[in-house]
Design goal:
The protein is of the alpha+beta class. The chain is 37% helix and 30% strand. Helix 5 (135-151) packs antiparallel against helix 7 and helix 5 (135-151) runs antiparallel to helix 8.
Length: 228
């Protein structure tokens, strides 16, 4: 995993104006091996990474992967870092039937993500495949939907643009303290919701979802909890 990420970070210079570049890996454990995989991820000395431990998410519902790691791309320069990651990769090979690693960027920095993750217990992860010629429009939709969400007093999502390694183009992660917070509806009237949608750039409240469906050919929607 990490060797490929280091190589990718050296070969492909960032092309976007995003703040930081990230690696994301998803694992699906071999049947019966998930407890062992979970313990491996929890007990690996991630502090050997230049950027520190990745954000670690355990699938709750909505998708087929068991674990998702998100970390900042940074070259592994010390022998301890390389040795630790080599051992991790060899162990993972015996425990998973599927793994996917890809790269993405975000206007939110790694420092900001780590701070936001401190009080997070639940993640809402959505991944989108843009229709032909609709990538820019999809990014705009994600941005103005965040604006709408903030206008009705809820927490916006963090937006990531995939650069290589996945057929998804954009994904978002919502950080929530717990399921109750995630499920609590906005305390606004229908009139206020309608006004907020129009102010953010939508035709109306219904257009928040209708516009998204016009722009995508694929979509995954997942809940996950923090690995502690």
């Amino acid at each position: 995993m990490k060797k490929l990420l280091i190589l990718a970070s050296l070969l492909f210079a960032p092309t976007s104006a995003m703040a930081d570049d990230f690696w994301i890996t998803q694992y699906r454990a071999t049947p019966g091996k998930f407890p062992t995989l979970l313990e491996l991820v929890k007990n690996t000395d991630w502090q050997v990474l230049p950027a520190g431990a990745p954000i670690m998410m355990r699938h709750s519902q909505g998708n087929h992967w068991d674990l998702m790691l998100l970390g900042k791309i940074a070259e592994c320069e010390t022998s301890k870092c390389r040795t630790t990651l080599d051992a991790f990769e060899q162990a993972v090979d015996q425990l998973v039937d599927f793994d996917l690693t890809f790269l993405a960027s975000s206007s939110t920095s790694w420092k900001e993500l780590k701070a936001k993750n401190e009080n997070t217990g639940l993640y809402h992860i959505e991944m989108f495949q843009a229709g032909a010629g609709k990538h820019a429009a999809l990014m705009r939709q994600r941005v103005i939907e965040n604006d709408f969400i903030k206008r009705i007093g809820q927490s916006p999502n963090e937006i990531f643009e995939v650069s290589i390694g996945s057929d998804f183009d954009i994904f978002t992660i919502g950080f929530y303290e717990n399921l109750q917070v995630y499920a609590t509806p906005a305390n606004v009237t229908q009139e206020q919701t309608e006004a907020a949608a129009k102010a953010a750039g939508f035709k109306n409240r219904a257009d928040v979802s209708f516009l998204l469906r016009e722009l995508i050919v694929g979509h995954q929607d997942t809940l996950a909890v923090k690995v502690k």
